[in-house]
Design goal:
Keywords: Disulfide bond, Signal
Strand content: 5-15%
Pfam families: Glyco_hydro_19
Strand order of the largest sheet: 1-2-3
Helix content: 25-40%
Radius of gyration: 19 Å
Distance between the termini: 27 Å
Largest sheet: 3 strands, antiparallel
Number of helices: 12
Protein name: Glycoside hydrolase family 19 catalytic domain-containing protein
Organism: Hibiscus sabdariffa
Number of strands: 3
Structural class: mainly alpha
Length: about 325
């Protein structure tokens, strides 16, 4: 409990700093520059707060404003939603700030930055939508409608990981968060990654939006398995596909981000709805951000319908976010 109290205290302090910074004029943001081993590195205040080449670029709050967040998730607080008042822009920016020095939303030029924010949030919007069958605003407007699985049928406790990530007494590991996490081993792995005890306190993901966003960004930035790319590295082009990847129709594409995150649940099954829904969110968000869906590339870069899964369901278990 003490560790969580410290975490929350730090988040509250950073949130106050973030709120003050976001209210300030962007032109007043201090950019510090140095050279290390011939490479330029920067710091940009609270939002990109340790020396990194990525902090020399614009930050996420420079390219993605409050009104754009509101446009993307315009129906999240309507009566049909199940997480009214939970999700907000400041929580996202505060969580993102922990990963901007690592390249999240800060890789490449402004176009790539905006495309990555749209791509990540497309996954989030599709996985937290309550837009099926709605009559107003369109189904793509209902992202961030949930922060937890409704009416879970099990506690998602798997004894396979009883030594590494044993289930806490009374805890249930149903889906929670911006990219919903299921199972004790995934809560344990994510908790290790973000330094929050999610194994003993999985409920934190439905109690604190910053932690929920932070967990989702961690999943985006972190490989599911060793020797595999993260969704981030796939999308921004840091990953170099092997010959086997090419044969499996995997490449540096939006479609491959779905593959590495969800595997056979979404990919290699033809044009199934779970895949198409994520793609639709991505194109819709690009339009709303003023980037335009034409910047998404051809259809074969958006889809994973014919890709072989990175992690087939029949392969040995590993701690993942799906």
């Amino acid at each position: 409990m003490a560790d969580f109290s410290k975490t929350i205290a730090l988040i509250l302090i950073l949130a106050l700093a973030a709120n003050l910074a976001l209210m300030a004029d962007a032109d007043d943001k201090e950019i510090r520059v140095r050279k290390k081993k011939g490479e330029k590195e920067c710091i940009q205040g609270w939002e990109c707060s340790w020396w990194s080449k990525y902090c020399c670029n614009e930050t996420i709050s420079d390219v993605f404003a409050v009104y754009q967040f509101e446009d993307l998730f315009s129906k999240r607080n309507t009566p049909v939603a199940h997480a009214i008042g939970f999700w907000d822009y400041h929580s996202f920016i505060l969580a993102a700030a922990m990963y901007e020095p690592l390249g999240f939303g800060t890789t490449g030029g402004k176009l790539m930055q905006m495309k990555e924010v749209a791509a990540f949030l497309a996954h989030v919007g599709a996985k937290t939508s309550c837009g099926d069958g709605v009559l107003t605003g369109g189904p793509l407007s209902y992202g961030l409608c949930f922060n937890r699985e409704m009416s879970p049928m099990q506690d998602y406790c798997d004894d396979f990981y009883k030594y590494l990530y044993p289930c806490a007494p009374g805890a249930s590991y149903y889906g929670r968060g911006a990219l919903p996490i299921y199972w004790n081993y995934n809560y344990g792995a994510c908790g290790d990654g973000i330094k929050v005890d999610l194994l003993h306190h999985p409920e934190y993901l439905e109690q604190n939006a910053t932690i929920a966003f932070q967990a989702a960004i961690w999943r985006w930035m972190t490989p599911v398995k060793k020797n595999q790319p993260s969704a981030h590295d796939i999308f921004v082009g840091n990953w170099k596909p092997t010959k086997n990847d090419t044969l499996a129709k995997r490449g540096n594409t939006f479609g491959t981000t779905m593959n590495v995150l969800y595997g056979e649940y979404t990919c290699g099954q033809g044009d199934i709805n779970p895949m198409s829904t994520i793609i639709s969110h991505y194109l819709y968000y690009l339009d709303l951000l003023g980037v335009g869906r034409e910047q998404a590339g051809p259809h074969d870069e958006l889809t994973c319908a014919e890709q072989e899964a990175f992690n087939p369901a029949s392969s040995p278990k590993t701690a993942t976010a799906s």
